[in-house]
Fold this sequence. Notes:
mainly alpha; 3-stranded antiparallel sheet
Amino acid sequence: xxxxxxxxxxxxxxxxxxxxxxLAQQAADAVRELLAExxxxxxxxxxxxxxRYWAGWHQARFGVELTxxxxxxxxxxFLVDHIQRKNKTGLVSELPPAxxxxxxxxxxxxxxxxxxxxxxxxxxxxxxxxxxxxRLTNPCELASxxxxxxxARRAAVKxxxxxxKKTAITRPELEAMLATCDDSxxxxxxxxxxxxxxxxxxxxxxxxxxxxLRDLRKVGEDGYIxxxxxxxxxxxxxxxxxxxxxxxxxxxxxxxxxxxxASGIREGAIFRRIWKDRVGPALLPGSVAAIVKRRAAQAGLxxxxxxxxLRSGFVTxxxxxxxxxxxxxxxxxxxxxxxxxxxxxxxxxxxxxxxxLLK
Length: 359
């Protein structure tokens, strides 16, 4: 990745903008603080990438290095540069093409064109967190910024834009995927991984990759309890609202036992890479997602599948089977009803008695 110093700047910054004052603490310091504060590796990478983008955009836009606190005008300029709006010519934004090209060339942006609105919202949230950590005046919490983001969301909905979500893996899809797993070492691993990821509450890919034998204990003759010591909401030293103990029972427990016996794993990571007939190191989170996608494709399933499909599918299937929402959230570790209710209600939709009035 090229350094942001290599980014070209416009001949004249946007007229009338108030540039941020130079302070001793710079954006790079915020990255270090965020890395120290955040527990999840994915979160730290996401935060660092967002702040690098802010620094690159700011230097290209104004010709000076980003320092904190940022001004209200800078944040608003970021929003109008990256949020599309509709006018007589169609959808437009204010990001100059030269800067757009420079950001892509510097590796700060994947492709030319506007960012998705959720990405813009996330980057503003990261800048807001950086200000909070440094206890600085936070421009992201000003009414002007909040109003602009709120109106942007409404406009996107009116244009028919909807958040893209991975296709849920409910029981029928899971059964089809499990049917593709043979009794080879890879097949046993993938069957155990799919069952573990689904049955233990729809685990995230990072949680599946981090699953360790020290946190697994046998209960009864055919079951396990997995203690989820580390997750997005159950982080070390942070007390969550639900128990970290996740039961793995029945077929899921049988699949896990078969994998552990065949692999000879006695300690360390539960799910690992396989080199021919040899068990290797722990899977990476990206590898978990790749396994889910591959098994979905082998099963002939249509949709956009990924590791999150296990999580959304678990909640959707629970809704279909009438499992109470508190019990579902105790398994998934969701701390907000709002973030889980959509999947849960979609699972119950077909059983809504009000939909059967003409039957």
